[in-house]
Amino acid sequence: LLNWSNTQRYQIWRRGLRLGDFVITRDEAKELAFKVQVRNGTDGHGVPTGFDAERLIFLDVTVRDRKGAVIFRSGDRDPNGDVRDLHSPYVHAGKLPLDKFLFSLQSKFLTRNIRGGEQEEVLAVNRSVDPLPYIRPDVRAGILVGRPAAARKHAVVLPPAGDRWAKYAVRGAALTGERPYTVNIKVIAQMVPVNLIKEIGSLGFDYNLSPREVAKRIVYGHRVSPSTADEDRRGGALTVWDETLVIDGRWKTRSLKPTEAEIMAVPPPPFPVQAPPEPDEIGTGPPAGVDLEVIEPDLPAGEGGADGESLLPPEQSSLLPETGGDDGVSLLPEAEVEDSGEEGGENLLPDPEEEDVQDGVNLLPDG
Fold first, then answer.
1. Who is most buried in 6, 116, 296, 346, counting CB within 10 A?
2. Dihedrals φ, ψ of 206, to 5°?
């Protein structure tokens, strides 16, 4: 079921998010520049759609030389699993550089600063400048505009049937001269960014999961083996397209437009499945080649059950009620037998003629 669901997810993403043309704009000793077209394959929805400020869709681009050395990378992740944008804690701390070539379709929240200007935020929550936080009531109904008064969203989604170009440049200092160069392009779709988990992690998660484990499951998926390596997990972020091109100087434009067969291709099943053995015939014994051994339980003394013996231990057998049942004796307890018949020759059931009369008063309604 998980593999079937993954196939449906894969095909839907490939239907809506596609690559177009790949164009080399400059191929010299001092610079290698190229651009790739990203297209919306539908005419009724934006990509991404819905809560697009929390949908991470980006390009992971790697350029290698002839010896396999990486000379350019955009769309890689920090140790938390975030891309290197303004929301990465490692970029904020100066541990990693900002990815200036990052192509992402994730919209961003912008909040208004106190003295003009705006800044990107993970959550559209106004900040209090007072050391004593309190709720400031809005002067207008936020439901009418669908957002707080001091926040807005910078949408960068692909409109229906629209497209956008992702542009990249490898500067001369990074070029090794070991030609031909190879460009690998991955289109990755992820449920939410890891920085959102960081923002809401103080509230806790179901099943007592830590923020780190939630982040790993979002990016890499679930553990399906004893291995603790992230690359051995299954699920997580989905690689929608994975294309590799060799820049050998003999072409300038290459079409990456997918065919219908490529869109509907079934991906390799990510989750391991062990098929059950097939039975000989439905409902007729064990599967072929399987011998079932009948194991008799080793019951303590007094708990037998064979030859009419009680399954209760001897010390509990006396707790069974003496309800009879043999030789015509009633199965009801004695108290119930006495209350259900006659006592001392006197009938305990009310006389039908006296049932509705009490102290001379008729209890039935008149008429």
1. 6
2. -65, 160
Query: Residues near 245 by Cβ (< 8 Å), separated by ≥ 6?
Result: 22, 182, 183, 185, 254
DSSP β-bridge partners for residue 247: 181
What is the residue-wise DSSP string for 231-273? GG-BSSSEEEEEEEEEE-SS-SEEE-PPPHHHHTPPPPP-S--
pTM of the complete model: 0.71
Q: Buried b / exposed e across 26-35, counting CB within 10 Å, b at 16+?
A: eeeeeebebe
Q: For residue 83, give Cα distances in angstroms to 93, 199, 243, 311.
A: 14, 16, 20, 66
Alpha helices in the chain (DSSP H): 2-16, 89-92, 142-145, 194-200, 211-219, 260-263, 314-317, 334-340
Q: How much is the average pLDDT of 344-365?
A: 44
Residue 19 confidence (pLDDT) above 90:
yes
| Placement of tokens 């350029």 in the chain | 63
Express each pLDDT in 312-323 by its tens digit: 444 444 444 444
pLDDT digits (tens, 9 = 90+) for 119-165: 888 887 766 666 665 566 667 777 777 666 778 888 999 999 999 99
Distance set, CA 265 to CA 6, 60, 239, 256 (Å): 12, 21, 13, 16
Whole-angstrom distance, CA of residue 325 vs CA of residue 108:
80
